[in-house]
Amino acid sequence: MQTKWIHDRIVDVFRKERKDRIVDVFRKERKMEKSLIQSNYLSADMSLLFNLESSIDSVLAATMYKLCQFVSSERSSIFLFDTLKQQLISFSSLDLEKGEVRISKLSGVTGWVFEHRQPAIANDAYDDSRFYDGVDEMTGFYTRNLICAPLIDHKGCCLGTLQSVNKKSGDFITEDLEFLNLTAGLVAVAIKNNRLFNEIKTTNGSVIYFV
Predict the structure, then answer these.
(1) Is the pLDDT of residue 3 over 60?
(2) Helix (H, G, I), strand (E, B) or coil at 88
(3) pLDDT in tens, 157-166
(4) What stretches of the chain adopt beta strand conformation (E)?
(5) Is residue 83 included in any domain, yes or no?
(6) CATH number for the domain harbouring residue 149
(7) How many domains does the chain have?
(8) pTM here?
């Protein structure tokens, strides 16, 4: 009798574990499917923006707004690398003026991402050794958490970084970083195209549309 009871308990445990594994796999598949759908929507929205015949400032401002919506963050910004001063400089943001913030290319999570050319999540900013609180002191803003990705062009050059700050609820997750990376790739293309556009326009003195 006791042997049958033990057998039944073992069977119940295996059934529960199997059920839990199936549910877990199903949830992961649904999560991946949702992430893929959202990524496609984001890519389509961003592509439309980058095909507009408008200024780079307008395009990037719209991109920062879209990014905040998709990852549910308070602020997003682009920092570009100044080769002469070896600094990362605020270029486009919903709250910072162009050139308002300048930091060393080695400072903060932004500097780490720029140097290593790898995206990063810092869900407890002030407890992260890479974080630089000087920007918060300068702007009066308090950073709880952030995600950051490098802006790498088609030649493999890192133009700067893209970051999104303060998730409105909870922590940033891997899917948020994937969205950021996707947007960073599009932003790098837009910035590189704009630079080429300005070079050609200056050289030829002709009107060329931004693409």
Answers:
(1) no
(2) strand
(3) 999 999 999 9
(4) 73-82, 87-93, 102-104, 120-122, 146-152, 158-167
(5) yes
(6) 3.30.450.40
(7) 1
(8) 0.74
Q: What is the percent of the chain with per-residue pLDDT over 70, rounded to a whole number?
A: 68
Inside any domain, residue 38: yes
Top-confidence residue, 76 or 10:
76
211 within 8 A of 193, measured Cβ to Cβ: yes
Question: Where does residue 156 fall: left (phi above 0), alpha (psi -120 to 50 degrees), or beta otherwise?
Answer: left
CA dist 44 → 34, 51, 66, 102, 117 (Å): 15, 11, 12, 32, 25
Q: Rounded to an integer, what distance in angstroms lies between the CA atom of residue 151 and that of residue 47? A: 16
The Cα–Cα gap between 72 and 64 comes to 12
The answer as to whether 5 is a domain residue is no
Q: Using the predicted structure, report yes or no on whether residue 53 has a pLDDT greater than 80.
A: no
Identify the sign of the CA torsion 21, 27, 32, 33. positive
| Domain encompassing residue 168 | 30-204
**Does residue 68 form part of some domain?**
yes
Range list of β-strands (E), 28-101: 73-82, 87-93
Locate 134 and state its tokens.
């000087």
Sign of the C-alpha dihedral, residues 182, 187, 192, 196?
Answer: positive
pLDDT, tens digit (0-9, with 9 covering 90-100), for 89-139: 999 887 788 878 999 999 999 999 999 999 999 999 999 999 999 999 999
